[in-house]
């Protein structure tokens, strides 16, 4: 691909001379190039498969990453990842869900703007129905996924330590040493020790030393949404490896629908569009849907047919249902000492002590933030003065802030769902995703519990409590899960334990949409582990 | 506090500019009545001052008063960072020219020849302190975007600006992963940020 001299009508109207016409029938067509799709594509290309990756968004040139950071920091500039507009339109009902703040369309997907926190789920997360009579059991156990977790940590280059007494069992150290705790952590540690709270390191998908051709962290402090140094893992890494292994990447090529054979047993084609409005047909022997927690469900729903009138692979009726996210709880305030915040954009300590408790049963993890309070440069470009007066304001606003955060589990509920909104269409005339999302009383109770613990810590520190995010004003952590759930029973789930659709023998769905429950750990390491498991299954099928 | 060569180089690196030279840009011909602003009757023919002069003069008002080495920082930053950003440079040049033309119209002198207090009065008189930073907005919005915020971003994303506030590794600056672990901010030169030996201004 990308030959200079590609006829203008073959680059899809982009004007960059990149060939965006279909390949001959491929072994595998991967839809989406986030971490799920990238890892599958890389693994299969390495195994010798003929792989085509179709990505809806553009490839963002790494040489512009520093300018994108400026875009993020300075007032009045655009979204660095260009989300929004008709391409990304959506509607909501119930509690508002800010979908376009929660995802990125581009090569690398949402890892382009992610925070990069990578914990394994706990053993109980796979057995919530059996253990607690809530949610659903996964069709696989922690032990089944453990080797894939290890592979995923190696793929990402996770920096971590073995000091977390609440972590699930593991057999090996992390690939990279953990980032040391922050000065801010040491302040929290005094209070936590008094209160009997255990602090420990937190695994980061961020280079603490050079790894896999990428630099160590340079301390820009802008991990989310832009890492200019390349130290933070993005799935661009495995897209590049896949291409080096022979895969073909077509960007700016949103898949409009999948089409199946007459019997409804196999997917035959992916119909994708290019910016000039033309539609193209990519045929393949196997298809992997890897478009993210909302678009996975949407693509299946857009692919409805006479055989599957409710959506492709949706005999169960579960496609789009059981939409979940993690809820944020937090307390912020100030202390009478320097807290040294906003040097880096990631956290170095957490507390998983309450994760496995059963009252409330929702998972809960606590975070100690290293980026509490304002950043001087961001405040400066938003201030309504300058000179010495501005300096005085910045000196007053910076320096003594502390924040504790928490993620709280939301259990799956059928009424929380993604559907198609026929009243509004995207830039290609397709119905946009409609997000119906609400909170239940148990989730609210877990949020209150998180706030109670956080307030105890702040009281112990003699800190002011300037704000609280709890049950009344919580928001999502931008982890969309559950909309194509995995399970053993085709009557109640969309994919099996290898993430193959129950309804179609050559269709796999990967990503957090397959999670039957979400736990309270950031999902991307589990996305990666599951994708590597799916890749093994697909490879075995070839 | 002194702005250092390291500050300027880092400010350049942070926006992707490379190979900063010391060649001062000259104004392109300004466009009188450009944009939505129509109050001052900017005189195109009078606006022939050096871009660097205007930006350095603006920096004298926008930066804190106790800063040395300012002109060298602005020279490297303004010239260097716009070399590879043609549209941004065009907007910066035109906006600085308009600011200069306004000064000549209102105060009969080039912006750079006015006192710091008078420059501050002109900026505030234009409503720049409360203007939204808009690259395609009114002249006040463009001055906020291209002049004031450009300078504030450069200053407070480098250690010299950060240190005045209490952070030697401010957001936007690649100051490594040691500083977040420290309890206190070391003196300049002791932490690899803002080394005095690199000072040239």
Count of separate DSSP helical elements of chain B: 7
Kindly identify the CATH topology of the domain at 1-112 and 216-325 and 413-438 and 483-542 in chain A.
Answer: FAD/NAD(P)-binding domain
**Oligomer state of the chains in this structure:** heterodimer
Question: Averaged pLDDT of chain B, please?
Answer: 75
- Outline of chain B, from the CA principal axes? globular
Note poorly predicted spans of chain B.
Answer: 11-49, 194-201
Q: Please indicate the percent range of residues of chain A in DSSP E strands (runs of 2 or more).
A: 15-25%
CATH superfamily of the domain at 1-112 and 216-325 and 413-438 and 483-542 in chain A: FAD/NAD(P)-binding domain
Helix and strand composition category of chain A: alpha/beta
Main beta-sheet annotation of chain B: none
State the major sheet of chain A.
7 strands, mixed
Overall number of domains of chain B: 1
Walk me through this protein's architecture:
The complex is a heterodimer of chains A (542) and B (201). Helices cover 23% and strands 17% of the residues of chain A. By secondary structure, chain A is of the alpha/beta class. The longest helix of chain A is centred in the C-terminal third of the chain and has 20 residues, at 441-460. Chain A is globular. Chain B has 201 residues and is mostly helical. Chain B has one domain (5-198). Helices cover 45% and strands 0% of the residues of chain B. Chain B has helices at 5-14, 51-62, 70-81, 86-107, 116-125, 139-156, 159-165. In chain B, α4 (86-107) crosses α6. The longest helix of chain B is centred in the middle third of the chain and has 22 residues, at 86-107. Chain B starts with a helix and ends in a 36-residue tail after the last helix. Chains A and B meet through α2, α5, α8 and α9 of A and α6 and α7 of B.
């Amino acid at each position: 691909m990308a030959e200079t001299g590609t006829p203008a009508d073959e680059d899809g109207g982009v004007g960059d001379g990149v060939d965006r016409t279909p390949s001959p029938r491929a072994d595998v067509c991967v839809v989406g190039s986030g971490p799920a799709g990238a890892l599958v594509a890389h693994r299969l290309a390495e195994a010798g498969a003929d792989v085509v990756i179709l990505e809806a968004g553009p490839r963002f040139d790494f040489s512009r990453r520093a300018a994108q950071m400026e875009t993020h920091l300075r007032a009045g500039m655009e979204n660095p990842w260009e989300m929004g507009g008709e391409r990304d339109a959506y509607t909501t009902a119930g509690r508002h869900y800010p979908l376009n703040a929660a995802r990125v369309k581009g090569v690398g997907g949402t890892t382009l703007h992610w925070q990069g926190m990578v914990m394994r789920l706990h053993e109980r997360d796979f057995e919530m129905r059996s253990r607690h009579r809530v949610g659903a059991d996964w069709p696989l156990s922690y032990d089944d996924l453990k080797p894939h977790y290890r592979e995923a940590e190696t793929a990402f280059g996770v920096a971590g330590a073995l000091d977390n007494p609440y972590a699930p069992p593991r057999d090996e150290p992390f690939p990279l040493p953990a980032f040391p705790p922050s000065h801010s952590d040491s302040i929290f540690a005094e209070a936590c020790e008094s209160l009997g709270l255990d602090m420990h390191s937190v695994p980061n998908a961020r280079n603490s030393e050079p790894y896999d051709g990428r630099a160590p962290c340079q301390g820009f402090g802008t991990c989310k949404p832009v890492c200019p140094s390349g130290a933070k893992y993005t799935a661009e890494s495995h897209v590049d490896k896949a291409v080096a292994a022979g895969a073909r990447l077509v960007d700016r090529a949103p898949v409009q629908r999948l089409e199946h054979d007459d019997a409804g047993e196999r997917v035959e084609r992916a119909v994708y569009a290019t910016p000039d409005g033309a539609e193209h047909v990519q045929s393949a022997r196997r298809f992997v849907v890897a478009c993210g927690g909302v678009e996975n469900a949407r693509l299946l729903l857009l692919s409805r047919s006479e055989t599957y009138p409710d959506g492709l692979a949706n005999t169960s009726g579960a496609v789009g249902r059981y939409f979940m996210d993690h809820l944020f709880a937090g307390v912020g305030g100030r202390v009478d000492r320097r807290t040294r915040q906003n040097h880096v954009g990631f956290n170095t300590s957490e507390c998983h002590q309450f994760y496995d408790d059963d009252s409330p049963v929702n998972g809960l993890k606590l975070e100690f933030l290293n980026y509490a309070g304002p950043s001087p440069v961001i405040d400066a470009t938003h201030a309504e003065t300058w000179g010495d007066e501005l300096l005085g304001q910045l000196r007053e606003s910076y320096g003594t802030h502390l924040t504790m955060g928490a993620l709280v589990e939301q259990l799956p509920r059928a009424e929380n769902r993604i559907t198609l909104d026929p009243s509004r269409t995207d830039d290609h005339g397709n119905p946009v995703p409609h997000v119906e999302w609400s909170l239940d009383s148990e989730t609210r109770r877990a949020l209150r519990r998180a706030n109670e613990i956080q307030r105890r810590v702040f009281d112990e520190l003699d800190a002011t409590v300037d704000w609280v995010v709890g049950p009344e004003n919580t928001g999502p952590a931008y982890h969309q899960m559950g909309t194509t759930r995995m399970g053993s029973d085709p009557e109640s789930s969309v994919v099996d334990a290898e993430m193959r659709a129950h309804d179609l023998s050559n269709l796999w769905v990967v990503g957090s949409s397959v999670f039957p429950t979400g736990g309270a750990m950031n999902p991307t390491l589990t996305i990666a582990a599951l994708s590597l498991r799916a890749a093994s299954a697909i490879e075995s099928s070839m | 506090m002194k702005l250092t060569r390291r500050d300027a180089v880092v400010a350049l690196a942070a926006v992707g500019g490379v190979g900063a030279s010391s060649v001062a840009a000259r104004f392109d011909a300004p466009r009188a009545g450009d944009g939505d602003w129509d109050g001052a009757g900017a005189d195109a023919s009078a606006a022939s001052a050096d871009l660097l002069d205007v930006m350095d003069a603006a920096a004298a008002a926008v930066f804190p008063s106790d800063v040395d080495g300012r002109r060298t920082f602005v020279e490297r930053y303004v010239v260097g960072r716009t070399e590879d950003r043609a549209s941004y440079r065009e907007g910066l040049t035109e906006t600085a020219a308009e600011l200069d033309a306004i000064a000549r119209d209102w105060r009969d002198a080039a912006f750079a020849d006015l006192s710091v207090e008078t420059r501050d009065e002109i900026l505030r008189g234009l409503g720049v302190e409360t203007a939204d930073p808009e690259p395609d907005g009114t002249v006040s919005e463009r001055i906020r975007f291209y002049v004031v915020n450009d300078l504030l971003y450069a200053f407070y994303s480098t250690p010299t600006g950060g240190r005045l506030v209490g952070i030697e590794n401010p957001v936007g600056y690649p100051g490594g992963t040691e500083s977040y672990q420290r309890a206190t901010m070391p003196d300049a030169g002791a932490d690899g940020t803002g080394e005095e030996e690199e000072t040239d201004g």
